[in-house]
Amino acid sequence: MSAALLSRWLLLGEWRAHRWQCLVAILAIMLGVALGFSVHLINTAAVSEFSAATKSLSGVSDLTVQATQATFDESLYPQLMQTDGVAAASPVLEIMAGVPAKADGRDDPALKILGLDVFRAATITPDLLGIPAEDQPFDTLSEDAIFLSPAAMEWLAVRPGDALQLSLGTKTVSLRVAGGLARAHAGQRLAVMDVGAAQWHFDHVGLLSRIELKLRPGVQHAAFKEALARELGAAYLLMEGRDQDARIRNMSRAYRVNLNILAMVALLTGAFLIFSGQVLSIIRRRAQFALLRVLGMTRRQILQQILLEGGLLGVLGSLLGLLLGYAMAAGALRFYGADLGAGFFTSLAPSLPLNPLAALLFFAMGVGVTILGSLAPAWEAAHTHPGPALKSGSEFVALRALRMPWLAGLCLLLAGVLTQLPPVFELPVFGYLAVVLLLVGGIAALPYLASLSFSTLLRGVDAQGRGVLRTLILARLSNASSLAAIALGGVLASFSLMVAMAIMVASFRVSVDNWLAHVLPADIYVRTMIHQDLRGLTPAEQQMIAALGGIERIDFMRSKSLLLDSARPAVTLIARPIDTRDPANTLPMTSDALPPAQMAATAIPIWVSEAMVDLYAFETGKKVTLPLTDPPQTFLVAGIWRDYGRQFGAIQMQLSDYRALTGDQHVSDAALWLASGMTAEQLITALDDLPFGTSLALSQSNQIRQRSLELFDRSFAITYLLELIAIGVGLLGVAASFSAQTLTRIKEFGMLRHIGLSRRQIRRMLGWEGGLLAGFGITLGFVLGVAISLILIFIVNPQSFHWTMQLYMPWTWLSLMALAMLGAAAMTAFAAGRRAVAGNVTQAVKEDW
Amino acid sequence: MRCFWILLLWLFFQGGMVAAPPEFSPVAPGRVLQFPQDFGAHPEFRIEWWYVTGWLETEEGHPLGFQVTFFRTATYADTDNPSRFSPRQLIVAHVALSDPATGQLVHDQKIRREGFDLVYARTGDTDIRLDDWVFVREAGGSYRAQIDAHNLRLQLTLAPTQPLMLQGDQGYSRRGPETGQASYYYSAPHLSVIGTIHRNGKTANVTGTAWLDHEWSHELIGPGAVGWDWVGANLDDGSAWVVFQIRDRTGGVFWAYAALRDASGQMTIYAPEEVHFYPERFWRSARTQATYPVATRIRTGEIEWQLVPLMDDQELDARASIGEVYWEGAVTIVREGKPVGRGYLEMTGYLQPISR
């Protein structure tokens, strides 16, 4: 008989006999690989799409000159044109205009308009040229013409020749759709018009957003960039394609890495399941392997056989995982969008690329994890002496080898140390490592802890001296704790992760809810259609709002973006009245604030969000310069506030300071407090009736709060899904290992039947065993989960998203999960028992030879 | 009468729907041209061009034809628009070099909106700039042309050797039977050229003789006209000769004009019916399939002239930028079998009618 044939027989025999065990292992691997692969696919697709879309806006530009503020004076344009080394320069005015027709929809009603000089753009961004109708070739210069990308045309449901109403601030502009674009990026919503017309219609005369430069051949880009940067000073940023890429990657990096690591954890859970399955399998087949050894099979062949069995499961699981991952990615892109609801990449429709290298990587990871899980059991099986192994009860020798309390101690200790380390490349790498170590340590400590607690229980029961069944159960659990631990590994891993995620999400949600209550103190909020509108409300319009009756107090706010670092997304500057004596009256302050007494009277205070401290080192008491004015002004960081809204940083300052410095009297938002006797509905009607009422977006604070929480839940949708999957895998693991264990104990049950136990009693015994074990696993999982949640809340979140939150325990939800888990475990144990005692008693005992 | 770009732009800008359209001056007889003011731009008129053509010779004696042209056109852009980017005036420039050694035209073109001191056509004296393409009349009265094209670099000084030649009635040049179908038009013939031409990595010193036309008007071509043929030539005896005809849809002549000024300054102007073009040899462009009468006999009054092209292929395919094709090239003028001078011939509307 050939070795290959034997190998196949063994393999198929094992699989046929333990279908469920195999299925669970395959499922676990499949889910882990699928999660990781789909997260990777979605993010690659989104980032490359976003990057390509951004690049198409710069065309063949060598260098993009941009200001730290959204716009700058156009006089820079002739200056750059006459700079040595510049071959061509294309001025661009970018306007985010509101689309009144879309104001009530789900989408952000914003259309990106690029104002271009068609003659200058032709050499640098030829793709962005408008294509006019054949009989109107110079529409590209017309004041009333706008050109739309196919995606924009579809979104707005317009065709060439149609009129298009747009708005900026309270100003409405009516343009004529004059045609499409030369080559718009697929799916990108974009409009192009003449720069002169855009300056005029959108109140931006004299201003530009950026200038694209093409350098003369032979000019050293790096040297040119450096010299120009020196000449232009801190108010301007020079960006090459590379910087743009970095900025885009930075935008979603933390989010992406966090999801990837969740997928890794799922894969790790899969590895535990494989491990426990293999351990049970070698225990069950101990005699079989011993016999094979006696018959002449080498250690090497045994090792290979077990690894092959595990590896094949891994291959199957990984392949299925790749397929499922692709399907999940496609589905998620379709239903949630490119950012899985997190809001980083809107108005894009990425396609899903097939990346063989990534697929191979995830496949290899799936298989690798399986082999890793089978390695220790296989090694043990191959190195057992066949003589003792043929005898009954020798499996506990095998299990002893897997008892490694020192490993558990080491892992837990190391985890503790890692939590103290700072982030690496702004990612909480050590935090995640600590989570993994906690899991591994917890699982390694299981046999020891199980034996300890069940033997304590047993002593308690013995002292009472009642109940044979109870004694039997506890004796079994305390003495065969290693076997129990294997069943528990999966429960522990999945339940602790579940608990951790539940606590983290609940804490986050409660923190956000409290924060919203703090940042939305007024009754009604007024803004123009577009967030951070460059025009906003004019002083006259502000006066008209303030003059309405029934308003007790009104706060105006100016909000704009500041680009402080070319490799990072812009930060938000918010100017509003702030109570300098106690900023906590206005802002959700952390405890970190400068007492007013310590502030110099001349210092201009700013209050920064937590992200500003991490990303730009804006610490309390520090003097910082902000390029709000030319030359840049120095400000004093007077305190830190909590911000869940702007991950990339936000700065607040007094509106009066802002106005004095910049002379900008426009505002973006207004917060209104109702006078007594006035209802919100009445005030909203009054606001609507203003001459510019239709261009205002009015919301009551509770509506904003509700909408924000909806958004929050949407962005955590993927996390909820992961939680459900973790629960599923955990339960499958429990079911599979219980039924497998029960089958290994058929001899034992036969014996118990012989000494007088009824089938019913054995089944009850098994149910209790399962329940107790699961209860123990759940308790331990809870402790472990809380520990992990603390790492997530106090290390991972601040390090990757730069915000802190309060701890909140969702007791109801946690108890429900625990009960469900417990019930499921007891039920599977009970069901497994039915099968175990269904056979012939005599036959069962005969197996013991 | 040489300008096509302008015609196109002019057509494109017909009747915009603008709140405050600009108002333009009509062309009327009786205006006395004033210099140096009239050397400069006339932004109150719709269209204007400075058109330099001529023959050059390298130090080795190779003949070359060249053309440097700057156009200005006022658009119907809304005068209410306060933006400095508002495209009120567009400046277009064109450079071409005919080299019989290669048998083809080398040419480049640019179009930009006026503004930011990067692109302008100044009033007061000839001073035109289009980024790094410059055409300026300097203090001594010489013109300097500096063109840095992607495939060609020209640096030429053009010194006048004769007084200006005012076309038509003291610079009021009619283009059609109706009043108003006219332009202000003067020429500077027999400009003495010296300079350098850089192409394919080599610089050549050149000398030669050129012809400058400066023309501005409100309307370009009458309804029904499809194209024109124009010649301006510096004759060896010091005379300057200009002739054009505007063809109509039926193949007949819509309008024609010719003037011959001898070395002493004596000017002879021919009425439209005294000017006749007789095509003698045709050349068909393989690129566009257009057929041009590259060799033509012209009769002005009693005189017969023969045009012999420097090379047949002097067609300019500008369909990519302005959607038009025309022929603009160096020709030798032959009278009674003997070469008597050299000039430039422009032929438009042979692929398709100009006015669409």
UniProtKB/TrEMBL annotation, chain A:
UniProt superkingdom: Bacteria
Record-annotated membrane-spanning stretches: 20-42, 261-283, 306-337, 357-376, 397-418, 430-450, 483-508, 717-744, 765-796, 808-832
Record's subcellular location: Cell membrane
Residue ranges occupied by any MacB-like periplasmic core domain in the UniProt entry: 24-229
The keyword Transport is annotated on this UniProt entry: no
Pfam families in the cross-refs: FtsX, MacB_PCD
Gene Ontology biological process terms in this record: lipoprotein localization to outer membrane
Domain ABC3 transporter permease C-terminal as annotated: residue spans: 261-386, 724-838
Membrane topology: Multi-pass membrane protein
Xref: InterPro entries: ABC3_permease_C (IPR003838), Lipoprotein-release_system (IPR051447), MacB_PCD (IPR025857)
Keywords: Cell membrane, Membrane, Transmembrane, Transmembrane helix
Gene Ontology CC: plasma membrane protein complex
Keyword Membrane (UniProt): yes
Family indicated by similarity: Belongs to the ABC-4 integral membrane protein family. LolC/E subfamily.
Full protein name: Putative ABC transport system permease protein
Biological source species: Nitrosomonas halophila
Organism placement in taxonomy: Bacteria, Pseudomonadati, Pseudomonadota, Betaproteobacteria, Nitrosomonadales
From TrEMBL, chain B:
Domain AttH positions: 47-217
Protein name from the UniProt record: Predicted secreted hydrolase
GO molecular function: hydrolase activity
Domain of life, source organism: Bacteria
Position of the signal peptide: 1-19
Record-linked InterPro entries: AttH-like_dom_sf, AttH_dom
Organism: Nitrosomonas halophila
Pfam families for the chain: CrtC, Lipocalin_9
Keywords: Hydrolase, Signal
